[in-house]
Amino acid sequence: MAFISINPFTDKENARFSFMSNASLEDRLADAWKGFKVWRKLPLKERCRKIHRLANELEKNREAYAISITTEMGKPIVEARAEIDKCVWLARYYADMAPKFLESKHIHTNSVASYVQYDPLGVVFGIMPWNYPFWQVLRFAVPTLLAGNAVLVKHAPSVPMCSLAIEEAFENSGFPSHAFSQLFISEEQAKTVIESSQVRAVSLTGSEAAGRAVAALAGGALKKCVLELGGSNALFLLPDGDVDLAVKLALLGRFGNAGQSCIAAKRLIIPEAQKDVFVKKLIKGVQGLSYGNPLNDKTTIGPLARKDLAKALDNQMQSSIDMGATLLLGGKRKGHFFEPTIIADVVPGMPAFDEETFGPLACISTYSDVKDGIKMAKQTKYGLGISLVTKDIPKARQMAKKFEDGAVFINQWVKSDPRLPFGGQKSSGYGRELAEEGIKEFVNVKTIRV
What is the average per-residue pLDDT within 116-142? Predict the structure, then answer.
């Protein structure tokens, strides 16, 4: 078995890498613990300097890294460059803010001194997905490292070249040996890592099924776990909302990265009275998307990362149509490519409504009464995010309290931002990444009282 890199546009193999042996994995675990002991002793200012050097390294090699992303998972090159730029922003943001986030918190008591300090846990194991192959890893690794932990990463088997490039970026930035390292290992070997006494916590970004499996293993080993799982985000247009804005957000939120995002706008919930005009404008927008070689700057939508993903999306679409949904545009699949598609009359009980759809499939549902619309928007086992489109901002801010999501975006599409905590509830997982909350997920919150 191996990690196999395939170019989704050409369907040709880029490279393959065999799994590590169990003996090599044991050595790597021991090395990671040694790396942690060296890394944690560095003053925080020095750790911040190295993260700034990492940002510079990413920026310097932006084009090469972007090409790696595009040739391994099919993201259009313009979006791949934007992913690297976002990683640079993340690294610089945390390198600047970590001293504030991690400073001891003094609390007034009747003692001479009482304070809380934030100590590293040890080695933290990250299991990362393929859809944002640089961003997802760095979103987890940068704050975890700044807190003083060492990091081990098992990346998705389809993006090994990106995984190696990230490791190289850390090495070129002057990080101590094994403070950050990647692992080419199987799922069975990943269990060994989670259960190892040299690993103190786990972070996973992936599917709900993977989250349940990892949570069970981490719980059995009494280890902290952060899970960022799937989502079925609604874009909820209120009756007073701007239809043009809703269409713009639907195009960005549903078709960016060919719809392969946990926070994509997967359910478009529209007032019955605005359906016709919304559909007309959305169709025009989708027809304006340009498919082609993702290395071409003019390409706006690329292939899906794997053939099985296209097939699964096709099954969800066809099943929903069989149950009464209406195909308005697209619907064709060939190899890795799934044509940008719009279906309407989607209702609860259909796969396109109930399940997470991971690809360029826009699903339109309608309502006649706002209470019914709210009920429809909330009718999901996921709880990652929701977008509200309305001109009544005070009302929308009050409405935000009704949703069991990790994020409510008003007149914006849901997206991650280093300055804001990111994560969900229910089947979307638990724990938070990014912002101050993210850097404190993998620390020992230690009380000291004199």
Answer: 98
356 is catalytic: no
- Pair 63, 23 in one domain: yes
Decide if 262 is catalytic. Answer: yes
Annotated active-site residue in 48, 162, 225, 262: 262
For residue 365, the domain's CATH number is 3.40.309.10
Average pLDDT of the residues in 381-401:
98
In a domain, 423, yes or no: no
- Co-location of 337 and 257 in the same domain: yes
Long-range contacts at 44-47 (CB < 8 A, ≥ 24 apart): 44/98, 44/99, 44/102, 44/146, 44/148, 45/99, 47/98, 47/145, 47/146, 47/148
pTM of this structure: 0.98
238, 197: one domain? no
User: Catalytic: which of 83, 208, 228, 355?
Assistant: 228
Q: Please state the domain count of the chain.
A: 2
Quick: pLDDT tens for 200-235: 999 999 999 999 999 999 999 999 999 999 999 999
What is the identity of the amino acid at 186?
S
Phi first, then psi, for residue 231 (nearest 5°) are: -155, 160
CA 205 vs CA 329, 380, 448: distances in Å:
32, 20, 34
Mark whether 32 and 145 lie in a shared domain.
yes
Look up the domain containing 391 and give its range: 233-418
Residues 214 and 355 placed together within one structural domain of the fold: no
Q: Which ranges of 196-329 would DSSP assign to H, the alpha helix?
A: 208-220, 243-255, 275-287, 307-322
DSSP state of 110: S
Residue 263 has pLDDT above 80, yes or no: yes
Length of the chain: 450
Does the pLDDT of residue 1 top 90, yes or no?
Answer: no
Question: Between the CA of residue 14 and those of 20, 269, 401, what are the distances in Å?
Answer: 19, 41, 48
Do the Cβ atoms of 124 and 175 come closer than 8 Å?
Answer: no
Q: For residue 113, what are the contacts with CB-CB under 8 A and spacing of at least 6?
A: 106, 448, 449, 450
Give me the pLDDT at residue 265, please.
98
- pLDDT number for residue 424: 98
Separation of alpha carbons 250 and 256, rounded Å: 10
> Domain for residue 338, yes or no?
yes
Q: Could you tell me if 336 and 439 lie in one domain?
A: no
User: What is the three-state SS of 363-412?
Assistant: EEEEECCHHHHHHHHHCCCEECEEEEECCCHHHHHHHHHHCCCCEEEECC
CB 158 within 8 A of CB 306: yes
Based on the fold, state whether residues 204 and 244 are members of the same structural domain. Answer: no
